Amino acid sequence: MILYLLRRLLALAGVLLAIAAVTFLIFYVLPTDPAAAACGKTCSPERLADVRAYLGLDKPLWEQFAHFLTGIFTGRTLGTGQYAVQCDFPCLGYSYENSLPVWDLLMDRLPVSASLAFGAAVLWLILGLGAGVTAALRKDTATDKALMVGAVAAASLPVYFTSVMLIYGVIRIAGLLPYPSYHELTADPLGWAGNLLLPWTALALLYAAMYARQSRGSMIEAMAEPYIRTARAKGMPERTVVVKHGLRSGMTPILTIFGMDLGGLLAGAVITESIFGLPGIGRLFYGALVSSDQPVVLGVTLLAAFFIVVANLVVDLLYAVIDPRVRY
Amino acid sequence: MTTPAPLLEVRDLGVTFTTPRGSVRAVDSLGFTVEAGRTLGIVGESGSGKSVTSLAVMGLHRAGAEVSGSVRLAGQELTGLPEKELAKVRGRKMAMIFQDPLSSLHPYYTVGEQIAEHFRVHFRAGRAAARRRAVDMLGEVGIPEPARRAGEYPHQFSGGMRQRAMIAMALACEPDLLIADEPTTALDVTVQAQILELIARLQQERGLGVVMITHDLGVVARVAHEVLVMYGGRAAEQAPADALFADPAHPYTRGLLDSLPRLDSADDVPLPSIPGSPPSLLHPAPGCAFAPRCAVAAAAAGGGRRGRGRRRGPLHGRAARAASVRLGGPAGRLPLRRPGARCRRPCPGGVPMTAPATRPNPAAEREGPQAAPLLRVRDLTMTFPGKRSLTGRRSAPVRAVDGVSFDLEAGQTLGLVGESGCGKSTTGRMLVRLLEPTSGRDISRLSQSALRPLRRNIQMVFQDPHSSLNPRQTVARIISDPLLVQGWSAADARRRAAELMELTGLIPEHIDRYPHEFSGGQAQRIGIARSLATSPRLVIADEPVSALDVSVQAQIVNLMERLRAELGLAYVFIAHDLSVVKRVSDRVAVMYLGRIVEIGDKKSLYENPQHPYTRALLSAVPLPDPAAERRRERIVLLGDPPSPAAPPPGCTFHPRCPKAQEICRTERPLLRLAASREVACHFPGD
Predict the structure, then answer these.
(1) In this predicted complex, what is the ipTM?
(2) Which single residue of A109, A185, A322, B554 could bond A192 by disulfide (Cβ 3.0 to 4.6 Å)?
C-alpha cells in the first residue's frame, strides 16, 4: 500500500514535470517576446536587454526551465543587485502584466473556482444521479424515457446558451436574483450561495445530463447482476436491495468520471466564469493567454494538471475502500 | 379428514415473456409437489423452462413476465402476493442457491455479512446475534475456521467454499424449502460430490424439501426422489426416480438417457442420439413440443398405420435400423402408459433413434503396434510468469504444465481429463505448435513461418462453438480460411468448404450464412469442419461438447467418431467429463496440477484405476441410475484442487489423498508402470 502510494506520487511528479516542460516549450517557440511585453510600449533596446536579463531570458532554455523548477520548491531570486526580488517558495514567477506573484494570483482566484466547482458538483450529483437511478429502476417506462430525453436535451445545450438564458430569465425578466458577484463564503454565506446559484445551475445542468446517462447505464447493469437476485431471494426489502446491493456497485464507475470532472473544474471554468463575471482561475487563464503572460499561463496549467492527477489518485485510492477486491 | 398440504404445490404454472420478437411461453401448464424431506429433481436442457420455473416459484421472475397458475407453500398461495408479503416468505420459508456462487455473492460485502443480513431482517435480530448466526452456519456447512472466514470476502473463497457459503446463507433462516438451480454445474466433479453430500446431510438434519434443478441426469439420479423432466416449457415426464430411470416412458426421457455417455456402460454399443436441437419457444410447434425430434412421432406420421403397429413390424427407415441395434426393449410388452408421462405414444420399451449402425473401431485397423507414433510428447512444460501486482512485485511463477509426456499413434484418441486448472487445456494449446515427430523433428522451437507448412497437419476444435467463430464471417469464409492461408485459390477453397459441410452433417446450401443462424450443435459442426479443412492428421479437441445440450452432445460425439474412422484422424480429446472421455478414447491420461498422474489403456484405467485421484474422480461422477448410485462406494475428496501457483510439496495430491503417507509429503512420485499402465503414485492400486 505504502509502496503503491509512493509509486503513484512519483508518477504524479513525472506527469507534472512533463506538462511543465511542454508548456515551457510552447512559449519558447511562440513568436511573441515576453521581454517586450514586460518592458512596455516605450522600450529602448538597452532597456529591453535589461529586462531580458532580469527575466533570465538571455539564458539557454534548459537553464530557464531548471531555474523555474527549483524555484517552485526552494524559491528563487529574480534579477540581480538592487533590483533583485526574492520570490519565495512556492515560486511560480511573476506575472508580466501586473508583476504580482503568480502563486498569489492563483490562491486569490482559487476560492472562487473551488466554490463554483464544488457547488455545481453537489448540484449535478443530486440531479444527475437522482435522474439516472430513477430511470434505471423504472427502465423502459415513460418516466425513464422522459428523463433520458431531458438528459439528451440538457447535454446538447452549450453552457454559454444556458448561462445566458438563465441570466436573462431569472435576473432580467423575473428579477429574482442580483447579477452575480463573488462573496466570500466565510464572510457572507448566504450571499455566497445566492450569487453562485445561477452559475452552479448553468454548469450543473450540463454535467447532470451526462451523469444521468452514465449512472442509468451502470445502475441497470448493477441491478442485473446475479447477486441482486440473491439479495431478493433472501427476502431483503426492495429498498435495501437497491440501496445496499445495487447502488454501491452501480455508483463505482461514476466515481472515475467524477474525479476527472471535479479535478478539471477546480482549475477554472473559463466560459461560466466569464459569462457570470466571476473572478476565478478560468478567467485568469484566459486573460493571461491573450496577453501572452507566460508565467501565469504556466502556473494555471500546472495547477490544473495537479488537480486532475491528484483527483485521479484519490479516486483510485477510494476504489480500494469501496471494492475489497482492489488491493494495492 | 384432510391430508396435510404438501410443502410445495405448484399447479398449472405458466410463465409468459413478451419480447420484441413475440411472446414466449417459457413455462406452460406445469404442476408438481414437493414434500418435506424429499427431493424433486427437475431436469431439462437449455430453454426447457426449468430455471424460469424455479424463479417463478420464488417470485423472482423478470419484471414483465406473466405468471399464471398457483404456487402454494405449506398451504399459502404465493402467486399474486404483493411483493412485500412475498419478501417475508423468501429467504425465510423458502431459499434458493444458484449456479455461479461467485457472481451470486456480492463482491463488496464480507461473507459473514451476506449470510446474516436477512437473518436480521426476518428475525429482527441485532448485529451481534446475526454475526454469531453467520459463524455457526459457516461451521455447519463445513468451512474451517468459520469465525475468521466470516470476515473474508467472496473472492477470497474457493469455488466450492463459495457454494458452501451460499448454502449457509440460504439456510440461515431455517427455511423449509431449498431450491437449488444447477448448484454444482460450475464446480469440479470432486467438489460437486462434496456439495451434493452436504445438501443431502442438511436435508436429512432439517427435513428440508429440496428442488434440484439440473441438466445432469447423473446428479438427479444421485439426489432425487422424484423427477420431473421438462421439455419446451412443459413437463415431459414425471415419476419417482427409480421408475423413471429404470423405465422411462417418454421418448424424450429415453432419448436423453440413451444418448448419455456413461461410466457404467459398455462403449462398443453405438451411442444413439436425438436428432435436431431443443426447440425455440418463440414459435412453438402445435401439439407435442418434442414431436419434430421424436422418432415415435415420425414413425407414426411417416408410416401411417404401419407406424402404430410397432410391436409387429419393423419401423420406418433409419429408425428401424437403430431399433434393431438397440437391444433390451422387451418386444412383447405393451406400451405402458404411466400417468406421469405426457406423451400420446409412450415408449414401447425401446425407442428407435438414429444411431450409427456399428461403432467404428479404428484401433483394429491400425497396422502393427510398433509403428512410429504420430505424436511424441516429452517433458512438455509451461511456466507462466507470476502475476505482476500493482506494486510491481511478481508472484511466484505458475507451472501450468509440468513435464507431460505421452505418445499418440495415428488414428488413435487420447483422452485428457482433469479438473479445472490441471493444465489440460494448456497442454492442448501447446500441442497445436507441435507435430510431425514421425520424422523426428522437434518443432517446439520452430519459428512461426517454418511452422506453417506443418500446421495443416494439426488443427483444433474449441469449447464454445459460437464464440470461437467470427460472427462477421460467413461459414464459407470460416471454413476456407485455413486453406487460403495454405495457398488455395478462393474457388477451390469454397468447393472444399461445401464438401466439408456435407461431411460434417451440415447442409452445403447454408454456406453463405453467418454463425448466429446455426444452433449450438451445428456451430460446433462448423468448428469441426474448419478443423478438417487442411486434412489434418491430428485434431486437438478442447472440451468440444461441454457447452452443448445433452441431447446434442451425442450427435457431436458420433460425428467425431465417424470422422475418425473415415479419415483416419487422431484426436487429443480434452474434457472434464469422464463419461464422454471414456466414450471416445483409446487411451486416457488423467492430469492433476500440471502433471499426468495416470495414463493407460482406457478399459483397464476405468475398470481398475490405480491412482487414488483417478479412483476419486471416477467415484465422484454421478451415474444416471439411482439404484447403482445407492450401491456404489463413494470416495469424497476433501478440499479443493490447490492453486498451481503454490503446489504442495512432494506428491501434489497428498493433501487430498486418503492414502497419503509420510513419503508422499516429501517425495514426488514419478510415472511408473503399474497394472499395465503408468501411474505416478507411491502406493498405486488398493
Answers:
(1) 0.82
(2) A185
